[in-house]
Amino acid sequence: MFRGGGGCCPPMDLMRSETMQLVQVIIPAESARLAVSNLGDLGLVQFKDLNADKSPFQRTYAAQIKRCGEMTRKMHFFKEQMSKAAILTSSTKFSGAPLEIDDLEIKLGEFETELIEVNTNNGKLQRTYNELVEYNVLLQKTGEFFYSAQRSATQQQSEIVADQFGDSSLESPLMEQEMVADPLKQVKLGFLSGLVPKQKAMAFERILFRATRGNMLLQQESVDEPVTDPQSGEKVVKNSFVIFYSGERAKSKIVKICDAFGANRYPFPEDLAKQLHTIQEVQDALHRATTDSNSQVASIFQILSTQESPPTYFQTNKFTSSFQGVVDAYGIAKYQEANPGLFTIVTFPFLFAVMFGDWGHGICLLLSALYLIIREKKLASQKLNDIVEIMFGGRYVILMMSLFSIYTGLIYNEFFSVPFELFGKSAYACRDPSCGDATTEGLLKVRQVYPFGVDPVWHGSRSELPFLNSLKMKMSILLGLTQMNLGIMLSFFNAKFFKNTINVWYQFVPRLIFLNSLFGYLSILIIIKWCTGSKADLYHVMIYMFLSPTDDIGENQLFPGQKIVQPLFLKKQHEQRHQGQHYTMLQATEESVTQLGGHHENSHLHDEFEFSEVFIHQLIHTIEFVLGAVSNTASYLRLWALSLAHSELSTVFYDKVLLLAWGYNNIIILVLGVTVFLFATIGVLLSMETLSAFLHALRLHWVEFQDKFYEGDGYKFEPFAFSSIIEEED
Amino acid sequence: MGFLVTSGIFLLAGIVGCLFSLLCCNRGPSTNLFHLTLVSTATVCCWMMWAIVYLAQMKPLINPILSGE
Questions:
Q1: pLDDT for A447-500, tens place per residue?
Q2: Residue-wise over A681-697: b if at least 16 C-beta within 10 A, else e?
Q3: Residue A428 DSSP symbol
Q4: How far is A445 from chain B (nearest CA, A)?
Q5: Torsions phi, psi of A704, nearest 5?
Q6: How many CB pairs under 8 A join A and B?
Q7: Which residues of B touch A528 (CB under 8 A)?
């Protein structure tokens, strides 16, 4: 059984997956179908396949399933045909009247063959109808031609009538008589008063064709009266096109099929609030099945306990589902472990924005996201092409990304790479009024620090890159360390939740101390250096901390007592590494105890316990973490790299395209320059850079953040629900 | 001084954001906690970014040297 919830923190949405129960249901045969049908309407239950090791042919009801499959195929075919003919279908809840499967099967078979036949007839008739229309137009213009044609037509008619209508039908004698009686008379409308049998439709068509009258058209319209279909007012127009009454008879048959299987769809409210409530609902559904089927015995509903891990389900709305999808793409969360999706909603757009920072581009992204969101309902019902569909699915992600990008753009002070003095005057000014040495010695800091973001004076200066690089690299390390610490804290919460005290002391604590004594210390040094303005070289400090910890630090001293503190950190790390090794031994023994305890469960998914496997597993994890600490921290430097690339590209496009074009004072070159700038901005910066930053932010989340705590080896909860099956098939 | 004042402004903005989310979208304790987590994470991220950039410029070791143009 899954280790029950820890009571450390109050419950929070999306933090952990919903609780699940394993139940066993035994249903008497007479109420089986109704019970399953009711459960399908509810959509709260996922069925486990107890015959998973049997092939499809060995299972008990294989033949019936095949028959049902055939019938489903036929019903799909009907549905397709109906949608082609633009007849509305609706689905109703099956009212539980027991239906004989055999009768249904036979009926469906009959309908299918008829419908196929009707379709082929329809095709042929369409063609001949078009020919008739053309002929009609021709005839209306030439009267003489009409007479001679009619004479020959009537002659041919009598011939054909003699040939083809050997078999007696009610209509053909009628036609024959009329023909014989009045060969020279024009083909009358009354000729068509009767019903033309479907089989004779071709011949009938041919006769009329030779008679060269357009009356057939009128007949069609009058006969093809709108079927009494309550839902479709406009079907009239379309049906008049379609086949004549041979079609009408078949058409009325199709309508009957519609009534029989057509059903109105009522979305059932999904109420997953309390587990007890849902269990109650499921039991009610089973009760209803029992009473409806007049069964003597009630279904048995029994809650089981098991060692297996249940499926994972997160309740998401349209906003959170796209972020949860991003996390799920890496791996579905294990049952009830901490969900990174919760923090991803904020940290993913934030890290994207750190790499994208430009509030001009951010506004462009915002506009596109708003467009997608405002036309949400309309776009959802349309069929979009692949790329637009992906963008539409992630519209809320793009919205968050754009909002954060505007913020970081304001901090980096870049509007299409142009800085502005939005928050006050720059902190720098010339040393003397003539600004003589501005290009050699540089400016002096005369005022308070620029209050929000990067000082606008830096852009375009010669020492811009050294300054910004140092700033962004250190920022990347600080942000990365914060996110990794968050990951380690989440692993602590997981350990508490699953009541895994070993993990707390021998995994969480060593990791925390190791990471922080190395890179946490570096971060503190960075902050101290910024605050004091010391000229200490941090590379030097860190490297010599390891090489010769007791040497005199001298000019690299950042705070008093540093000489004493550093060796202590080293000692701590050393201890932790060894503790990690001891952990592997302890973990192995603890695991063996818990595994033996659960041996009597007859679950076949119970893993066999291997000491050597656990040992190697933990050793690998220890080594991975130690090496990973350095590589993961360095990995966060991509935040710096991409942000540099973005700002440099942006600068190049602005300086070398727009300003260059502006300098020529020629309207044509200006227009050309603006066009090139526009295309370059949209193609390179807004599309390629967005994808690039998206991808790298994703990688940072999937590897560096989730590695610290995420197992991700669960499976999704897929309930048996009619509503989702119908949606799938649409 | 400017650092502490502006940090205070960020803190205030965060608190206002939390109250706003509680007022407008009050949907049960677990959903409220979820919204609070999101708002506070966003506030912390934004504050960190601003604070880093601010601190880096407080006592700079290099100064801007304008290019010749």
A1: 888 889 999 989 888 889 999 999 999 999 999 999 999 999 998 888 888 887
A2: beeebbeebbeebbebb
A3: E
A4: 8
A5: -70, -40
A6: 126
A7: none
Q: Write out residues 426-455 of A within 8 Å (CB-CB) of B.
A: 427-428, 438-445, 448-455
Amino acid symbol at A328: D
> CB-hemisphere CA count at 13 Å for A231?
11
The helix (run of H) or strand (run of E) holding residue A71 is: helix A62-84
CA–CA min distance B15, chain A (Å):
17
Mean pLDDT of B19-39: 88
pLDDT in tens, A171-188: 444 444 444 444 333 333
Give pLDDT tens digits for A493-527: 888 888 877 767 777 888 888 888 888 989 999 99
Let me know if B43 is exposed, middle or buried by CB neighbors in 10 A (0-12, 13-18, 19+): buried
What's the whole-number average pLDDT of chain A?
Answer: 75
Q: Give the position of tokens 């009024």.
A: A433
Report which of A724, A725, A719 is spatially closest to residue A20, judged by C-alpha positions. A719
Instruction: Look at residue A312 and give its three-state secondary structure.
Output: strand
Q: How far are the Cα atoms of A34, A686, B47 from residue A358, in angstroms, in the given order?
A: 60, 11, 18
ipTM: 0.96
Helices marked H in A184-274: 201-211, 215-223, 235-241, 245-261
